[in-house]
Design goal:
Blueprint: H1 2-20, H2 35-59, E1 62-67, H3 69-83, H4 91-117, H5 121-144, H6 167-185, H7 192-208, H8 212-232, H9 234-239, H10 241-261, H11 263-273, H12 278-296, H13 307-311, H14 338-346, H15 348-369, H16 376-392, H17 402-419, E2 423-428, H18 431-469, H19 473-486, H20 491-503, H21 507-520, H22 525-537, H23 541-554, H24 559-571, H25 575-588, H26 593-605, H27 609-622, H28 627-640, H29 643-656, H30 661-675
Antiparallel strand pairs: 1-2
Helix pairs in contact: 1-2, 1-5, 2-18, 3-4, 3-15, 4-17, 5-6, 5-7, 6-7, 6-8, 6-16, 6-17, 7-10, 8-16, 10-11, 12-14, 14-15, 15-16, 15-17, 18-19, 18-20, 19-20, 20-21, 21-22, 22-23, 23-24, 24-25, 24-26, 25-26, 26-27, 26-28, 27-28, 28-29, 29-30
């Protein structure tokens, strides 16, 4: 009785996870697209595993393991994840990603086991996927019409984003569902009118997401679908060919009309084709930069979960100085290409396991289609959806989105169940196994508590953000301090808490918190900038040089990094290195005031008054806010013995900056010297 109850609980929990993953979000967290989804997925799957272990302990007979062709690929990938710890910087991010990948493997096995319990269970999976995606699509259509009952942090500009909180995420998830909607069109049990409505709703939401990469994936998915149907379900294809053409002409006309009516979409497509689109340029830069990362780190990449940290040191690689004229740093945590992301994060060998996994999926899928069975359209739907995701993944990262990745592994488990390409092995329970199971129960209870703490800490960050918005600094500090106390391993908690202390004027406390952020993520640009300025204002010369060197590694083309490193060399008496740094910056960014101003000071420090005067004059010419350059010029004239020009320079300076105390004091000194 108990074991049956636990089995039912497991199955209900599995279906609950499948249904609600794309629907679950939390408006009370700072980032509802990642933290909430991770909590929902990992927490509920932890409960599932605890129930499974308890059931086996109560059952006290045996438990089943499944040997599939995918096990070796999964195990190989996980082993490389574990070994990858030797290259990671942030161990929490590594552990978080490792656990997520292990949970995906568990989900694959859970889906396989569920599909084998009853030959019709795959239909429940199909129905739940379609219903949840229909709900998601309806909400996306409402957003596109201008009606959204929820207040999101992001302005979607009438693009359908739905509960996934991002139009690109929604598009990727719908690519998994649409082929199954099309499969219903060929079903004898589902009325054609119902299947047509499902197809149109899902496709309309995809179209209104305005995600061009998903459009390409959709076309590829449809092409594969009809090729497979025409080859392996000829009778159904011939019988419904006319209906199929009519339905897909409708979908095509909807897409075409939308593009014609929507000027913004037409412009996006035109710019993408002519490579004038900013989004396309950004993606090209991301891909090139990631390839540099892969080239330098071929074995283990950045290490699981640490892509955002290591990529920070490659964000400039494919760019030029002119790209940094208005921006010092370009932040990204993703390569916007699933294959490059996997190669860059896990290394080439690990990415080979993932490529082999997809190859095996198509191999097994085609082998099933060659046999006589009643689920051919389900298999065709899986293969078509995978093609759509892979194509979309060349421009985005759908396999990093938890609802999409989870659905993919669930479908993979069902595919293996149909293929029969598995071996069922029963293992008898013994004392050692029981002790191991009890230990794992406690481990997953502990893991569930950790996940809850992370989720709650993000809730406090949201409250902190609201308090900061209304200038309630002390309340903001209280909330972000709670976030740090609850989850002290999350660097974002320290960063928000540091900013809150900074807003309240507590510089010393902010400094200590920013140092903690730097310890967990040295690639965090804003933290580097604050620490440099703090060390500079407190005459901490060695610390300042260390941070400046790191800033230059992160963004050697940026004016902030150039001037910071040059100034750090200057303050530490390394004038030749300072001049070399500034000269390189001047060569590539000749009109930047900060570089010219600092270069003048550096030449003045080594007694080269001619160059000090030259660069001070150029600095004055390129900026109206040039008091420092005027002062440098006056000092250079004094050192060269030209007191008259120094006086004229200071007088000119006071015309533009009448309240400048340094100019007044220096002019007074010069007048006194002349009187003597």
């Amino acid at each position: 009785m108990k074991k049956d109850f636990l089995l039912k609980f497991q199955n209900i929990l599995f279906l609950f996870i499948l249904f609600f993953l794309p629907l679950f979000f939390c408006p009370f967290t700072l980032d509802p697209f990642w933290v909430a989804e991770q909590f929902f997925f990992k927490f509920l799957l932890s409960l599932f595993i605890i129930a499974f272990l308890m059931r086996k302990l109560i059952n006290n007979t045996y438990f089943v393991i499944y040997k599939t062709p995918y096990n070796l690929l999964f195990f190989g990938f996980i082993i490389l994840n574990i070994i990858g710890v030797i290259v990671v910087h942030n161990y929490f991010l590594w552990a978080n990603t490792l656990i997520l990948n292990i949970f995906y493997f568990f989900l694959f096995l859970i889906s396989l086991d569920y599909s084998l319990q009853n030959k019709n269970n795959y239909k429940k999976i199909l129905v739940l996927i379609l219903i949840s995606n229909l709900i998601v699509s309806f909400y996306g259509l409402m957003q596109s019409c201008g009606f959204d009952p929820l207040r999101w942090q992001t302005d979607f500009s009438r693009r359908a984003a739905s509960t996934l909180g991002n139009p690109n995420f929604l598009a990727g998830h719908l690519l998994l569902a649409i082929p199954f909607g099309i499969s219903l069109f060929f079903s004898k049990r589902v009325p054609k009118s119902v299947s047509i409505i499902i197809i149109i709703v899902l496709c309309s939401a995809l179209i209104l997401s305005q995600t061009r990469g998903a459009y390409i994936g959709f076309i590829a998915s449809l092409t594969i679908f009809f090729i497979l149907v025409s080859k392996y379900e000829k009778e159904s294809f011939v019988k419904l060919k006319t209906y199929s053409i009519v339905v897909f002409l409708m979908v095509f006309i909807i897409l075409l009309l939308y593009i014609i009516i929507n000027l913004e979409m037409r412009t996006k497509i035109k710019n993408a084709l002519t490579l004038k689109d900013s989004s396309a340029k950004i993606r090209l830069s991301l891909w090139k930069n990631t390839m540099y990362l892969i080239k330098d780190n071929p074995l283990f990449g950045s290490g699981p979960g640490n892509f955002e940290i290591k990529y920070a040191y490659y964000q400039y690689k494919s760019l030029k100085y002119k790209d940094f004229f208005d921006n010092d740093f370009y932040k990204s945590a993703h390569a916007h290409n699933d294959l490059l992301q996997i190669m860059g994060e896990y290394g080439l060998l690990a990415s080979g396991f993932i490529v082999a996994l997809f190859y095996l999926i198509f191999l097994n899928g085609i082998s099933i289609l060659k046999t006589q069975n009643n689920a051919k359209f389900f298999i065709i739907g899986i293969l078509s959806s995978v093609i759509g995701i892979l194509i979309h993944g060349l421009f985005n990262f759908p396999l990093l989105i938890i609802p999409t990745a989870s659905t993919f592994y669930i479908l993979l488990g069902s595919l293996v169940a149909f293929s029969g390409n598995y071996e069922k092995k029963e293992i008898k329970m013994n004392l050692i196994l029981k002790i191991t199971f009890v230990l794992f129960v406690f481990i997953f209870i502990f893991l569930a508590s950790i996940l809850t703490r992370i989720f709650l800490s993000n809730f406090y960050l949201r409250k902190s953000g609201e308090a900061s918005h209304f200038k309630m600094n002390r309340i903001a500090i209280e909330h972000s301090s709670n976030a740090v106390a609850i989850a002290p391993w999350v660097y974002e908690n320290y960063y928000i808490n540091a900013k809150d202390h900074l807003n309240a004027g507590d510089i010393e406390k902010a400094y200590k918190l920013f140092e903690k952020v730097y310890e967990l993520n040295p690639g965090h640009w804003e933290t580097n900038v604050f620490l440099f300025e703090f060390y500079a204002s407190n005459n901490m010369h060695n610390e300042m040089l260390k941070i400046a060197e790191n800033m230059y590694k992160l963004s050697p083309y940026s004016v902030k990094a150039i001037t910071s490193l040059g100034y750090a060399y200057y303050i530490n008496g390394k004038f030749d290195k300072a001049i070399l740094t500034y000269e390189k910056g001047y060569y590539n960014l000749p009109e930047k005031y900060d570089i010219l101003y600092h270069l003048s000071a550096a030449y003045g420090a080594i007694g080269d008054t001619e160059k000090a005067i030259f660069f001070a004059r150029k600095a004055i010419d390129v900026s109206e806010d040039n008091a420092g350059a005027y002062y440098n010029l006056a000092v250079a004239y004094i050192k060269s013995g030209n007191i008259q020009m120094a006086k004229e320079t200071l007088n000119e300076m006071l015309k533009k900056h009448p309240d400048n105390k340094n100019a007044k004091d220096l002019l007074k000194v010069l007048k006194n010297e002349i009187k003597k």
